[in-house]
Each structure stands twice: as C-alpha cells, then as structure tokens.
Amino acid sequence: MIYKFTTTDPAQTIALGEKIGRLLRGGEVIAYSGGLGVGKTTITRGISIGMGLGDEVTSPTFALVNEYAGRERSLCHFDMYRINGGLDLETTGFYDYLDGNNVLAVEWSENIADELPDDCIRINIERVDDNTRVITIAADERFAEIAL
Fold first, then answer.
1. Domain contains 90
2. What's the total number of domains in the chain?
C-alpha cells in the first residue's frame, strides 16, 4: 500500500511520525529516502515519541547509529550516507540490531538497498519549499489508519 501526506511545518512531520511510531511492534526496518535536510531526523523524532521513547532524537551522521532504548522495544537510528554496500555495513553493527525488539530507522537506505528486508517500510520525503514536505509511505495495511 502507498500512503501520501503533505506536511507544512516540522510539527506536522513530527505528528505524522508519532502516528507511525504507535503502530510499530518491533522488528520493522524503516528505509528512508530523500535529500539532505528534508526531515528524516524530524520524522524519526516523532516515531520515537510515538514509541514512548521521548523526543531526544539527533542525527546519527557522525555516530552512524543512535540507539534509543525502551522497555519493550528500542529505536535504532542509522545514517548510511558513507556506507557503500554489505561489506561497509558490517562495520556499523547493522545485522546485530535486526531482532524482534528493535525498530531500525535507516537514513540514506538507497546505499544499502540490497541488504534491506523485502518487507521494510519505505518512507520517501520530498522537499517542496522551506516548510512543505510530501511524505510517501510504502507499507502494509496497518498504516491505512494514519491516512484517515
């Protein structure tokens, strides 16, 4: 299923992320695509809030992964900008995070496209202007409720 949203400020992008976060059970991989500064970390902040993990989400650009641990599930936020495929991916510990309790949010997922599970949630963010974003989500039917 494909779901399309338009947000006109960061607060709306965070609110959309919160709705997504409330639907996550653990074990999902979210594959982001979109250019620099489009709001990948902003929507991840909302997902973290929706998962009950708080809003202290920062870009993993220099760390490669930031982990936000919860009692039931954790959010692992990856930046794959400098990763070029499976061999580089090994150094991030990516495969170690793929268990039923973690949700992986992967920025620059196109750099590891061949390593992603077939059933990953795909979120593309397009910048329309300084504030407006078109967010397209390719995911299973449980996400239909956020489109209402």
1. yes
2. 1
d(CA 80, CA 44): 15
Residue 93 lies in a domain: yes
Non-local (6+) Cβ contacts of 101 within 8 A are 26, 27, 72, 73, 74
131 within some domain: yes
Residue 147 is which amino acid?
A
CATH (domain of 14): 3.40.50.300
Going through 45-140 in order, the beta strands assigned E by DSSP cover 65-68, 74-79, 102-107, 121-127, 133-138
Number of neighbouring beta carbons within 10 Å of residue 105: 32
Does 82 fall in a domain? yes
Residues 89-116 pLDDT 10s = 887 788 888 877 899 999 999 998 988 9
pTM: 0.91
